[in-house]
Each structure stands twice: as structure tokens, then as C-alpha cells.
Amino acid sequence: MALWCASALAIGTVGSVAWVRTAAHGYVYDEADVPAAPVALVLGAEVYDNGSPSAFLAARLDIARRLYLAGKVRAILVSGDHGRWEYDEPGASLNWLTARGVPITKVVLDYAGFDTYDSCVRATKIFGVDRAIVVTQSYHIARAVTVCRRVGVDAVGVGDSTVKHFRVDWAQSGNREHGACVKAVLDVVSGRDPVFLGDHETGVEEALRA
């Protein structure tokens, strides 16, 4: 029985990873080549105790900043965890971007992007995003693009590899992707609601008009 369970788990994991990578094929680009979209969706990552973004999150934000300055996006939706008042990924992202020249009117905060699936679903159901460039690290980008596309966002993606020199963190995060791909399949198949859904928010619409 144990051997059967282990085999089933291995097959399920391999199949999930293959599904994610196949579904994202043709939708992941280098930054210079990515087609324009109205919105950059930056997925959340760790924020330090002093309120500054981790190197991983800062690298994502820097791509979004450059996409905005290049005219490839007209608004930036920063999604992340603000489940505790003292921990605020979207707020840290806003501060980082505005300190580097992105107008505050162009940055929209999603405080309930607790995981990739929640961020993608909320982008479309709460903020009305139907087309976006998703920004995250390169080990994560295939899953992010696949999930967003499967929940209704016409998404392409740009992945960052500049923080690869953090070898331990990079390797650990890459290894976690195998299990995360299984979760992505379960989330998409179940069509579950995010932890928080709520009413429509007009922040993205206002940022695009600004």
C-alpha cells in the first residue's frame, strides 16, 4: 500500500508539473519581448521586519517598474499577504515603486493575494483584469501564467532570475514548485473561491484612466 501511494503521488506530481509547463508554453517571455498589456500583476513575496521587500520581491517590482516606464503596462497591481496588520506585502510594494518614480495613481493594492491562485482569481473577479503581464521569479512563472489563464486572465509572464545567486533560497523555492503544481491543479479543477473575495474594486480602472 505504501509503495502504491508513493507511486501515485510521484505520478500525480510529474503530471501536474507537465500540465503547468505545457499550458504556459508560448506565454512566457523575456522582458524585452513581452507584448504590452494594460496591467502588470506582481505576485507577493516576503517582506522583512523593517517593512522593506525581500530581494525576491524587489526584483519582481523592478521588472514591473521597467515595464511601466517602457510603456508596456499602464498600471501595476501588487498582490500579496496583509492578513496581519504588522505584515504588509502590498504596502511595501507600493512604497518601493513610488520611491523609484512610479506614480502612486498607477499602483493598485490587493491585500488578499495569499497565494498564486487567490491573486489570479481576485485580479479578474475583484479588479476586473482581463489581460495582464504576470511578474514573478522564473521558477514560478509557468505556474503563475497557467493559473491566471485558467481562471480567465489573458496572461503572459516575465520571470526574474537576477536573485538566483541566493542559491539556498532559490533551490528551496524551486523544489517547492513541484508540490505547488499539484495544488495548482487541485485549485483550478475545484474552482474554489479565494480566502477573501468581496465586492468589485475600481482601483485598476481608475489607474488606467489616470
UniProtKB/TrEMBL annotation:
Residues 39-155 form the DUF218 domain. Pfam families: DUF218. InterPro entries: Cell_Envelope_Assoc, DUF218. It comes from the Bacteria. GO terms for cellular component: plasma membrane. This is Membrane protein. It comes from Virgisporangium aliadipatigenens.
